[in-house]
């Protein structure tokens, strides 16, 4: 090769390397500083749902962590969290248009469930000798407050700051069969330590049962990025509440040791999920309440630690509740399209719902969910994000 050609080749190689470096630098800086484009367009949330105006509310902290919420169901519809490279990743499943949440086929994405989250056996419970009957919407049982619950309710929003928004709802007496007019307030706040706190308050004018929680579906590798079975999960629970074939607890608090339910040290969600096990067969995977040990951090129960294996995102959940429902997305069946255009395929999201135990109104040995008229219900859960 003559000298001219050699020089030309060297120059072309150097130029190509420089261009590659520039491109990589630009991508890193976009990921670090800007993250993905806005995942939600607020104009798609300014629409009428069920004849009432719905809006999008945005909370942002100094690290760019962003929570998107809507007043329809007081829902968390998106959550941008920095991954191990500093790029913002949306870790909550949802839709990009408010009206898509009004779907009885997939009603619980990101929503508050209540007035009684989880199941009540055969849609019945008794207080002071009076039996209350609820609509059944999950086989023979009532799930997540019934047909409308509070997930299809229009809550009234008050945004106190860029890092806090509250939603209020008045549940009328006997709506979905629950006694009493109940005032509820749910406040979402985002700290500069990357903690999303959900605080719940409620009060009824009649003795009733209350169990509020949030029903976000998480994928810490990113919404719509594939199965969650490779996530690592640790649950601070030595016991769980086994269920019957309709997912109602038998009343027993069973040890997890030696069973697929042992998450006392971190393990992949998918490691034991296909084990031949009667409890797993009832839930088609994990769909069970875990009894928290009460491992206290700043006065709250450390409930769970989850790691997104690809993103390095870690979510710790702290709660004042005695239990947490772990649902591994076993009934997800490509019924809907997510924000990023992908389908809600089998086990592409998991829920961890801090709560009192399922069917507590009918289970005298479970912590009580009964509140007298005028009594204050309050509870709080924190979702803290970090990277590893
Ligand atoms: C329940 C599941 C149910 C899911 C619906 C969970 O809280 O435990 O059985 O399918 O909610 O989103």
UniProtKB/TrEMBL annotation:
Domain of life: Bacteria
SUPFAM superfamilies: Galactose mutarotase-like (SSF74650)
Pfam family, one: Aldose_epim
PROSITE patterns per UniProt: ALDOSE_1_EPIMERASE (PS00545), PROKAR_LIPOPROTEIN (PS51257)
Keyword flag Cell membrane: no
Record InterPro entries: Ald1_epimerase_CS, Aldose_1-epimerase, Aldose_1/G6P_1-epimerase, Gal_mutarotase_sf_dom, Galactose_mutarotase-like, GH-type_carb-bd
Record flagged with keyword Isomerase: yes
Metabolic or biological pathway, per its Swiss-Prot or TrEMBL entry: Carbohydrate metabolism; hexose metabolism
A Gene Ontology molecular function term of the record: carbohydrate binding
Assembly and oligomerization: Monomer.
Protein name: Aldose 1-epimerase
Species: Sphingobacterium humi
């Amino acid at each position: 090769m003559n000298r001219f050609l050699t020089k030309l080749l060297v120059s072309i190689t150097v130029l190509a390397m420089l261009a590659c470096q520039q491109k990589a630098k630009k991508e890193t800086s976009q990921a670090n500083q800007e993250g993905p484009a806005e995942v939600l367009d607020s104009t798609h949330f300014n629409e009428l749902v069920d004849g009432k105006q719905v809006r999008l509310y945005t909370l942002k902290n100094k690290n760019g962590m962003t929570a998107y919420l809507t007043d329809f169901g007081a829902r968390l519809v998106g959550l941008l969290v920095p991954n191990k490279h500093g790029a913002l990743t949306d870790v909550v499943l949802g839709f990009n248009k408010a009206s898509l949440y009004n779907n009885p086929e997939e009603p619980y994405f990101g929503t508050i469930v209540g007035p009684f989250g989880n199941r009540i056996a055969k849609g019945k419970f008794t207080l002071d000798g009076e039996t209350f009957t609820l609509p059944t919407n999950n086989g023979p049982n009532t799930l997540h407050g019934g047909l409308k619950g509070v997930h299809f309710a229009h809550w009234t929003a008050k945004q106190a700051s860029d890092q806090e928004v509250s939603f209020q709802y008045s549940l009328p007496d006997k709506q979905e069969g629950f006694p009493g007019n109940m005032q509820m307030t749910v406040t979402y706040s985002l700290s500069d330590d990357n903690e999303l706190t959900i605080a719940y308050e409620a009060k009824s004018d009649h003795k009733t049962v209350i169990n509020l929680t949030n029903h976000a579906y998480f994928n810490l590798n990113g919404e719509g990025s594939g199965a969650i079975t490779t996530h690592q999960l640790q649950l601070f629970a030595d016991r769980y509440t086994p269920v019957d074939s309709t997912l109602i607890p038998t009343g027993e608090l069973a040890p997890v040791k030696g069973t697929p339910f042992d998450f006392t040290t971190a393990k992949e969600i998918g490691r034991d999920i296909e084990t031949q096990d009667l409890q797993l067969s009832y839930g088609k995977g994990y769909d069970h309440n875990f009894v928290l040990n009460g491992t206290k951090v700043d006065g709250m129960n450390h409930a769970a630690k989850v790691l997104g294996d690809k993103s390095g995102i870690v979510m710790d959940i702290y709660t004042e509740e005695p239990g947490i429902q772990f649902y591994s997305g076993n009934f997800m069946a490509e019924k809907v399209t997510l924000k990023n255009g992908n389908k809600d395929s089998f086990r592409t999201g998991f829920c961890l719902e801090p709560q009192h135990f399922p069917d507590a109104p009918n289970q005298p040995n479970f912590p009580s969910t009964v509140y007298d008229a005028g009594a204050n219900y309050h509870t709080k859960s924190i979702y803290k994000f970090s990277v590893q």
